[in-house]
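Subject: complex prediction, re-run

Hi both,

The earlier run crashed halfway through, so I resubmitted it with identical inputs.
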Amino acid sequence: MLSNIGVALLLLVLILSFLIIYNSSLELKTSSQSIRKNIYQLSLFQITFTVLSFFTLIIGFINSDFSLINVYENSHTAKPLFYKIAGTWGNHEGSLLLWVNILVIFSYLFLIFNHTHNKKFRLYTLIFQNILILGFLFFLLLNSNPFNSIYPVPAEGLGLNPILQDPALAIHPPLLYVGFVGCSIYFSAAMASLLSSYAGKLFAQSIKTWVKISWCFQTLGIIVGSIWAYYELGWGGFWFWDPVENASLLPWFAITALMHSLIVLEKRNTLYSWVIILCLSTFILSVTGTFLVRSGILNSVHTFASDPSRGIYILSFLSFMIFSALIIFFTKYKKENYNFNLKSRETFILANNWFMVFFLVTVLIGMLYPIFLDVLTNVKISVGPPFFNIVIIPLAIPLMFLMAIGPKFSWIKSQNKFFYKILFLILGAIIINLFIFYFFGKYSLLSNLIFIAAIFLILYSLLDIKNIFNKKNKFKLPRVTSHLSFGFLVFFIGINYQFSLEEDFNLKVGEIKETNNYEINFEEIKIKENKNYKAVIGNFKLTNLKSNLVQYLNPEIRIYSNPETLTYEAAIKTRVTSDLYLTMSNVSRSDYYNIKFQKKPFMIWIWISALMISLGGFIQLILKKNEN
Amino acid sequence: MKISISKIIIFSFIIFFLSVFWLGLKIDNNYDTKSLIGSKISNFHITEINNENQYISEEDLRKNKYTLINFFASWCAPCRAEHKYLLSLSNQNKRIKIIGINFKDKKINANNFLKDLGNPYNFVGKDTDGKISISFGIYGIPESILVNNELTVIKKIIGPIDQVQFEDVLKIIQ
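This time it finished cleanly. Structure:
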């Protein structure tokens, strides 16, 4: 039943997309200033049916309708309601339906909110967006239909992978999807801009808000994924340079560069071609990332969703996108003249772009090199954190200096009057760094430079914030918030990296272990039955030998029944200055448990700074709305 | 569009990238089990799912002209899809015996599975911890291996048996 409704709705959306493309092409030739009503109506129908199809699938999950293969494979009656709903997008087919939904929603919103812009430009955007919608809709219907039915109807489902049953992971895919698929709209807009010659300043204004929205959601989505990895995967780390994490970083670098160069295009009406390239490559990189993750070329925690036959389809569509983008770009490309004063703000914004492109290329090479080597020479290697750390971290030092100073250079030309202020703040940063170095521990020259640069950025941004409140110039607040938070993020990651403790040992119930000023007492083991899993809970008494502070930590081993899986839940005590992190795992055929104990300074502040970076973007969206 | 050197370079770069991706899709990330074809199986010894004392060994396989060893589990959806082909194989054809190996499953679920959907197997072996399946190079179920009376592997089917595979098996055993 639901299967038929779902497929019928999707077919209606398919027909509507064709109709929208057809009507828009006709409309291009008319001379009237505004777009005919029927295109709005078709789009409204399209968005309604798409959203309805998604709700149909959600209903299937809520009611545990196992006649749908997708529900049968990814859900179970014993699952809490929240995870039944989250299960909708916790699998390949459902998440692809979410993907199509976001394409359609952005298409509709762009059409109605940009009514002040050129008609031809809007129509072309609508056409390209609908070509994208068609591409993914065909993929959905032919290869990955979430509404496929199964007969005979099974009595019980197989259950969602337990490591995905987690609140952070329930919201992680929707956030990332709004971020990554949201990029589609300015991919379409960029193509439209080339074809309709609607260029420069006005084009920048038309896509500005959309770029910011997708930037905010991408940033937030990546952070939520990282938080999940921290407490669920039980390694105590939060960034692993895992291929999938890298895949999510690629579009993020491109969009961050885009967000900055868009300012130049809007204010100075230059850099148009570069902005177009960034618009096109952001979405192309998003799809490339999806291709690498979904096709199974890369192996990682996300391989739950991999299948080579999908790969061929996504790759064909990706090639189609890239070649049509390239051909249209080269046909319409006009040479621009750039006359920038070396000390102007544009130069600094361009500098940001160089950094982002450098990071992008580094991550891309690190990601693709193993694939290329495997394909061309049959040698299997993996590029790990050392490569990325060596190449990327040193470059963060000049980047942070520029992040502080760059925005202060007024448009076109600047004076040297900031010179003394900068010198003074650098001196301040060096003194603070020396203080940390002297009292808390030794670290390398590179780390010293990182700390100095981060502290400099923090100090500089704090001064900026003071000025903002004195002058009540709130429009600089978003930028300063994001830059300041980035400084804090690097600073806290640095501290965390330098001063983390990690101990690994085996204990059995009743034993006591002393390590690094802590006494760890393994008091008992409890077994608890829950709705869909059985938990083995360890009770550990942790005594700080210096302050005699006692804390209890309860790591768990969870045995899920559907499907049968073991997961290890870390016990984390978060405090203002540090996290205590304890995981236990059973050692087979013995009474001993393997215990991993970590003390990680300022973990909570890493999350707060990271969230503040995206908060900067959200503040800007709110301020813009009020301004209008 | 005018053709210039820089454009040619950009296009060839992208074509190169895309073709590497395309080739990458064809590479088997897991170890290759196709080499199993033509090799002989040895140390074959599997106990019956409901009876610890009953087992099947190489000698039993030699008695059959063809044996299809099918790895299945009650929790595996594609196994349900291929089940009808197994049933019709066992009903129509006397030249082939089918051995089911129950992979990482509970006894009660496996028995219910066979009760609900029908039992095509001449013998159901158990593989609760999945070790036997690993020695056959199974990396996902369902999978099936066709052997002849000399214990040589003739065909390996990865994934569920579909119409094409079904007809192929029939052709081989004629």
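The two ends of chain B are 61 Å apart (CA to CA).

- K.
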